[in-house]
Specification:
The relative contact order is 0.13. The chain has two domains: 3-83, DNA polymerase, domain 1, CATH 1.10.150; 92-336, Metal-dependent hydrolases (TIM Barrel, Alpha-Beta Barrel), CATH 3.20.20.140. Helix 1 runs parallel beside helix 6 (74-83). By secondary structure, it is an alpha/beta fold. Strand 1 (100-101), helix 8 (115-124) and strand 2 form a beta-alpha-beta unit. The chain has helices at 3-16, 21-34, 39-48, 50-53, 59-68, 74-83, 92-97, 115-124, 147-162, 188-193, 209-221, 250-259, 277-285, 305-314, 328-336; strands spanning 100-101, 129-132, 169-177, 196-200, 227-228, 263-267, 290-293. The model has no long low-confidence stretch (mean pLDDT 96).
Amino acid sequence: MDAVDALSEIAFWLERDLAPTFKVQAFRRAATLISDLDPAELADRVHDGRLRAMKGIGDRTAEVIGQSLSGLPDYLDNLRRRGAEPLAAGGVELRDALRGDLHSHSDWSDGTTSIELMRKAARLLGREYLALTDHSPTLTVAHGLTADRLEEQLGVVADLNADPPDGVRLLSGIEVDILENGRLDQSPALLARLDLVVASAHSKLRVDSITMTQRMLAGIRDPHTNVLGHCTGRLVTGSRGTRPPSAFDAERVFAACAENDVAVEINSRPERQDPPADLITLALEAGCLFTIDSDAHAPGHLDFLAYGAERAAAAGVPPERIVTTWPVQKLLAWSRAGR
């Protein structure tokens, strides 16, 4: 087995299992270190001990590289066996109906890997399309994209789609902040060029209900908005601790989503589980469209869609109301309408 592929796949499975970042990075770093070595040179370094002497190669990564020369490494085999079981028991039919994912991040903002690695993982999982939605400039802690950097990224996405060997369509996009005044945190001219716009609030989440409702309504009514991202902003578990949901008039917000053809995101990240079940029901009754998204910040996170599918199925959301079950041309006709 190709050693770089083995190391990269191990990192994928570890990310999927929410392993500590340092552990994942050890395998990705080792993959980068050996990526320029031809097979003969790599084999020589394994056999004469020079591989283990390389800075950044530890006992486990050296073992994986050595075993890859003759077959499937034991460590990867064990991870594959564990990964054969779905992350969530429910919503299997809905999960299988999902064609794409409209919320993902790369190392252009606060994701951990390149666009190419995110796309490769999407192919591994059988996705037909993946929206690249790095953050907007105001979210400096996440290295949000300025207009110039977003313009540059548009060129990268176009180049990757010009010769798509893996069959995964990359959609140009952004997770744009809904600012305190309700405006979207990027120029309208640039937003109009994107395939997909996810609008989310990331700051001042504890303001009063009236203020937050007005802010969200303004973001939803912007003609560039396609998806309302993680609408409550809550955190229910994880390394960042917990955070209560924002207070807002959910009936007015979801009515505006339905009126403006904006999909309500069912965010699949385990620490978010956003919206809560009662709000999914309320959005369903309001006539909203939905999207089940991973909000992936690493390749292994792309499989989190299983969690969102389980929650959507439990709430009785019909597959036809979930835009990520649609083929890409229908999806793009919806996302670009009105711009």
